[in-house]
Amino acid sequence: MRVKAIVAYDGTGYSGFQRQSNANSIQAALEAALAELFGAAVPVSGSGRTDAGVHAAGQVVAFEVLWRHELASLHRAMNALLPEAIAVLSLEAAPDDFDPRRDARSRWYRYRIYNAPVRDPLSNRYSLHVPRALDVEAMQAAAASLLGWHDFSAFGSPPQGANAIREVLRAEWQQVGAWLTFDIIANAFLFRMVRMLVGTMLRVGYGALTPQRFAEILQTQNRSGAGPAARACGLTLMAVQYDA
């Protein structure tokens, strides 16, 4: 049977989601747990590749297994074997042709910033500490230019092929006290795209770039004007949406 799973993980100390020959990855950890359960290799595919150090609250994966019991028992068994930094939140049977990457309609990422003079040691694994004052209104004006279809070559590289055009459905900064969050939903993302966007918008927040100049960088695909990429620790894949 084909199984769809929603997985959460703390990406600290991992090379990212995708399996690599010389580093720990989330995909490899999931496959190791399944191999121990079934006594054979069980390939796992994911909805997308998260960078090294990036977290997930709702990564979607799929795999094929011969399982004649309730999925609840497979769910418990996987979590018993996985490292503490990784948890399967839910399991369900999926159509035989379900592909978590190709079937996805949109992905939602969130970047968290702690904007205060002194760092918060209890949150530094999951947020970026920015001690300087930020103009959040200007950052939101820059984010508004991201909506719609654009070539995002200035902010990343396509995971496959050369097409850098993506549709952004939501791009919004919010502030609650010292905490800033940037939520972005798009049909797909380029490699390092969110981190490059955040790093460039931080320059807008510092006053080093205007929102208009940010929009020009996007429109002209001027990679030299973008970045640097914000640190991976603040980024989380929140959810992946599929057709009902």
Map the helices and strands.
Elements: E1 2-9, H1 26-38, E2 45-46, E3 55-64, H2 71-81, E4 86-93, E5 106-114, E6 128-129, H3 136-144, E7 148-151, E8 165-176, E9 179-186, H4 193-206, H5 211-220, E10 235-241
Parallel strand pairs: 3-10, 5-6
Antiparallel strand pairs: 1-3, 1-4, 2-3, 5-9, 5-10, 7-8, 8-9
Helix pairs in contact: 3-4, 3-5
Walkthrough of the structure:
Strands 1, 2, 3, 4, 5, 6, 7, 8, 9 and 10 form a 10-stranded mixed sheet that branches. α3 (136-144) packs across α4 (193-206) and α3 runs parallel beside α5. The mean pLDDT is 96. The relative contact order is 0.19. A hairpin with a 2-residue loop joins β8 and β9. 23% of the residues lie in helices and 29% in strands. With 244 residues, it is of the alpha+beta class. The protein is built from 5 helices and 10 strands, in the order βαββαβββαβββααβ. It has helices at 26-38, 71-81, 136-144, 193-206, 211-220, and strands spanning 2-9, 45-46, 55-64, 86-93, 106-114, 128-129, 148-151, 165-176, 179-186, 235-241. The longest helix has 14 residues, at 193-206.
